[in-house]
């Protein structure tokens, strides 16, 4: 019989065990081994069936066992130590508190998904895992972050396979009362709520759930409340589900509702209000509109409020392709804003203008969330050095007249939270060298360029560790594979072969990620005979573990999964290659340490960063990857291999894949497998072990989320907080008025004449020329602009490459016709074809970049040719 109502019955812990509740509700346990071990000892068998989730564990432990523990002095001593350690972690000074700079009082970090732990399944892939690692690293560093997201009642989806290998999706219902979250409540005990106005006089209400991620509160909005109609209750049903309007409502709730949730949390708890708002991808971009509305309610006009909001906003883009950005029909957006809907005090036209694609190739009828994110943020970044470059090129249309390299989008390369992803065995081996506390600090705070202590670990210890981790993975794979085949309809009698799947002494390759086409899940299948030869080689075999989910609406991705599964089902190779369904954090934590090689073969440059290889590297797994994302930035032959890229112009997709697949096979046959199986005098693969050592020594400190968050604090959060403080209401009005004046007058700013002291088209290296420019500023003054000389090598089309800029200074006042003369030196510091030009930019002390307004004036083509501005 089916129950007509569901309750969550929570255990009543004996008084001595009450600290267990606090330990379970703080997600620090997900990366703190001692706390997890304490919970495991409560009931080892139930700990396993609870999936390592303390909340589920405590909900199922027998009362007799709890009473037994309440009288166990040894357990109570451990419990007291764990509770004291958590208290010290939560209240003690950490890296952030030791900084001398005027850092932000608080930062609000918005993301549509957060991958903190498998016990809180609110993530789909890399974006969510990165957001979870950002929160955990911020907690370790003591950064006063407030996370903001949504609580999805079905999470993402659970993946199984049909008998034919077709992906099937399942959406289990998640009861918040069974998750490691608690309701945020008003002082009178009622649930705290936020509300959004919808067209037609309706309302969208949402409760606020709190997940405590170490020191960092994570606020999660849930629309499944009784005050909502059926449609509104389903707004937070699934991550990345539903149609266009459904997604728009999710993003309005995340951005607008999220700001209101932050204000509510700060009011109820006394937490410092954020000075900086960080938008992790465009999904949360509407947060800027809510903050503008707040300031308008306080008496500012829209333009002044926009300047104040921009000053304290950071926007991070994660996509390298326009197709990865959320775009909505402008009429749909217009319907949800203005009179009778949300933010009625703001003119709808101003809102639409923030997201309009007003650049060549843009679509005028679409509202672009990333474009709005960039226009609402004074500081923006990509997530690797290469991705920063790709982003500057992709969004260059928003800054017309500027070369892509000058577009004000920087980069902070992603990192991973080592305490979450490093296997306990790896951590223990490191702690033997430098001690527990130093090892913990090295992984969480970081700060060094190299981990030289790894050199002191014996080769035999490294090799024994690698084999132990590989063997653990083999056992995990067999268990998961057996469960998968049972779900596919196989009987026990059919599955005896699984006991021989994988071998703990065979070179093991991992490939696990989402399955969009650009990640090329099936590149390894381009030449199946050659792959079979590698899998079945009599002396140097390989084995491959593959996992990944295709988006439910992506039939192309599902076909790739099926193609891989059918190959892995072949009795000839099924003991050497497996596909594991339902890839998630719990699987990943076994997969990264157990593999010897981490394979990544995306289409370059479509991998914004790709952090799975970082997690593998921290465990001594070597990367074999296309030079994309972070690997393009940090690859060295000392600790991995680069798959060559076939990116010539005119290359068709099939031919490119054939070439790159052949290069992959070549690397495996000629360089990777020989090194793994080549044993030296001591019977160990000396050269392989040295690559493992170099991977941990040199890559380890780089790939840390602690390094990443420190960069955000120093390079983005702190300047944003300083800009926020500078923009008081009067200053914001002055800045908005100045920008309006500059925009209105810019058409009158011209360069009339350029001349140098060069008498010939050739010059000696080291020569300094005198540069003289005559220009008009219209209604502007020299205080409003900066005049620059731009010089550098020129290409065949006379475009300046790798240019440098130098300011020119006015030589006196304007002449009778209102023209100004600017002068300055021009140093010829490079040989070869060399050129220069001049340009005029708006200049104001509160601008973060000379390109901020997207305005630039330079000599006309006729003037440039007449002045001979290019020298050979």
Automatic annotation (TrEMBL):
Domain DUF3417, first and last residues per copy: 13-120
Leader sequence segment: none
Catalytic reaction list: [(1->4)-alpha-D-glucosyl](n) + phosphate = [(1->4)-alpha-D-glucosyl](n-1) + alpha-D-glucose 1-phosphate
SUPFAM superfamilies: UDP-Glycosyltransferase/glycogen phosphorylase
Protein name: glycogen phosphorylase
EC number annotated for this UniProt entry: 2.4.1.1
Keyword Glycosyltransferase in annotation: yes
Top-level taxon of the source organism: Bacteria
Keywords: Allosteric enzyme, Carbohydrate metabolism, Glycosyltransferase, Pyridoxal phosphate, Transferase
InterPro entries reported in the protein's UniProt record: Agluc_phsphrylas, Glyco_trans_35, Glycogen/Maltodextrin_Phosph, Glycogen_phosphorylase_DUF3417, Pyridoxal_P_attach_site
Catalytic EC class: transferase
Cofactors: pyridoxal 5'-phosphate
Recorded family membership: Belongs to the glycogen phosphorylase family.
Coiled coil start-end: none
NCBIfam families, sorted: more_P_ylases
Keyword Cell membrane: no
Primary role: Phosphorylase is an important allosteric enzyme in carbohydrate metabolism. Enzymes from different sources differ in their regulatory mechanisms and in their natural substrates. However, all known phosphorylases share catalytic and structural properties.
Organism this protein belongs to: Streptomyces bobili
């Amino acid at each position: 019989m089916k129950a007509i109502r569901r309750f969550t019955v929570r255990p009543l812990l004996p008084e001595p065990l009450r600290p267990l509740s606090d330990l379970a509700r703080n997600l620090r346990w997900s990366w703190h081994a001692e706390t997890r071990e304490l919970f495991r000892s409560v009931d080892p068998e139930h700990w396993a069936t609870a999936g390592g989730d303390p909340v589920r564990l405590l909900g199922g432990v027998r009362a007799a066992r709890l009473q037994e523990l309440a009288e166990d002095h040894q357990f109570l001593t451990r419990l007291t130590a764990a509770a004291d350690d958590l208290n010290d972690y939560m209240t003690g000074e950490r890296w952030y508190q030791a900084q001398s700079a005027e850092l932000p009082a608080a930062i609000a970090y918005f993301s549509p998904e957060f991958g903190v732990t498998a016990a809180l399944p609110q993530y789909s892939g890399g974006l969510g895992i990165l957001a979870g690692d950002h929160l955990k690293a911020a907690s370790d560093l003591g950064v006063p972050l407030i996370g903001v997201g949504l609580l999805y009642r079905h999470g993402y989806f659970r993946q199984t396979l049909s008998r034919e290998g077709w992906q099937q999706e399942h959406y289990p219902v998640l009861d918040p009362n069974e998750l490691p979250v608690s309701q945020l409540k008003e002082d009178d005990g009622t649930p705290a709520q936020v509300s959004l106005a919808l067209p037609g006089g309706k309302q969208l209400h949402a409760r606020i759930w709190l997940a405590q991620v170490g020191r960092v509160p994570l606020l999660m909005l849930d629309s499944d409340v009784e005050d909502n109609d059926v449609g509104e209750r389903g707004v937070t049903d699934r991550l990345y589900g539903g149609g266009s309007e459904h997604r728009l409502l999710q993003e309005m709730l995340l951005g607008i509702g999220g700001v209101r949730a932050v204000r509510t949390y700060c009011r109820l708890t006394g937490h410092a209000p954020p000075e900086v708002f960080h938008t992790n991808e465009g999904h949360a971009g509407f947060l800027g509109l809510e903050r503008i509305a707040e300031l308008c309610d306080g008496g500012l006009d829209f333009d002044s409020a926009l300047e104040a909001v921009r000053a304290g906003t950071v926007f991070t883009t994660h996509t390298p392709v326009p197709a990865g950005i959320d775009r909505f029909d402008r009429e749909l957006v217009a319907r949800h804003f203005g009179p009778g809907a949300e933010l009625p005090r703001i003119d709808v036209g101003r809102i639409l203008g923030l997201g309009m694609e007003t650049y060549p190739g843009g679509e005028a009828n679409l509202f672009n969330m990333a474009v709005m994110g960039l226009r609402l943020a004074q500081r923006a970044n990509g997530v690797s050095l290469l991705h920063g470059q790709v982003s500057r090129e992709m969004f260059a249309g928003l800054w017309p007249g500027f070369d892509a390299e000058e577009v004000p989008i920087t980069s902070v390369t992603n990192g991973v939270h080592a305490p979450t992803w490093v296997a306990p065995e790896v951590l223990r081996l490191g702690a033997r060298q430098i001690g527990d506390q130093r090892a913990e600090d090295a992984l969480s705070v970081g700060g060094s360029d190299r981990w030289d202590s790894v050199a002191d670990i014996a080769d035999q210890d490294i090799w024994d560790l690698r084999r132990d981790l590989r063997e653990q993975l083999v056992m995990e794979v067999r268990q998961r594979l057996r469960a998968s085949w049972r779900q596919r309809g196989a009987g026990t009698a059919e599955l005896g072969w699984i006991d021989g799947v994988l071998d703990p002494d065979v070179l093991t390759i991992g490939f696990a990620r989402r399955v969009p086409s650009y990640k090329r899940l099936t590149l390894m299948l381009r030449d199946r005979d050659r792959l079979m030869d590698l899998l079945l080689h009599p002396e140097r075999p390989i084995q491959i573990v593959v996992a990944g989910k295709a988006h439910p609406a992506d039939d192309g991705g599902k076909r790739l999964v099926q193609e891989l599964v059918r190959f892995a089902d072949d009795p000839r190779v099924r003991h050497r290659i497996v596909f594991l369904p339902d890839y998630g954090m719990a699987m990943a934590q076994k997969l990264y340490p157990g593999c010897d090689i981490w394979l990544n073969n995306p289409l370059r440059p479509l991998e914004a960063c790709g952090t799975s290889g970082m997690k593998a590297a921290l465990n001594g797994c070597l990367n074999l990857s296309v030079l994309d994302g972070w690997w393009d930035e940090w690859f060295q032959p000392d600790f991995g291999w680069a798959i060559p890229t076939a990116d010539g112009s005119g290359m068709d997709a099939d031919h490119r894949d054939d070439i790159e697949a052949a290069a992959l096979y070549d690397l495996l046959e000629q360089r990777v497998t020989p090194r793994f199986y080549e044993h030296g005098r001591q019977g160990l693969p000396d050269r392989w072990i040295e690559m493992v050592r170099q991977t941990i020594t040199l890559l380890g400190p780089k790939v840390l989320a602690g390094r990443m968050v420190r960069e955000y604090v120093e390079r983005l959060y702190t300047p944003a907080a300083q800009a926020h403080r500078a923009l008081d209401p009067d200053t914001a009005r002055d800045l908005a008025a100045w920008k309006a004046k500059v925009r209105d007058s810019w058409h009158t700013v011209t360069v009339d004449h350029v001349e140098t002291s060069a008498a010939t088209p050739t010059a000696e290296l080291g020569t300094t020329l005198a540069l003289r420019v005559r220009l008009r500023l219209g209604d502007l003054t020299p205080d409003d602009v900066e005049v620059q000389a731009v010089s550098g090598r020129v290409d065949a089309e006379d475009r300046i490459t790798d240019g440098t800029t130098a300011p020119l200074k006015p030589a006196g006042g304007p002449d009778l016709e209102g023209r100004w003369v600017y002068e300055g030196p021009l140093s010829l510091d490079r040989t070869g074809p060399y050129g220069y030009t001049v340009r005029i930019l708006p200049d104001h002390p509160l601008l973060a970049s000379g390109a901020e307004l997207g305005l630039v004036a330079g000599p006309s083509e006729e003037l440039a040719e007449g002045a001979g501005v290019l020298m050979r």
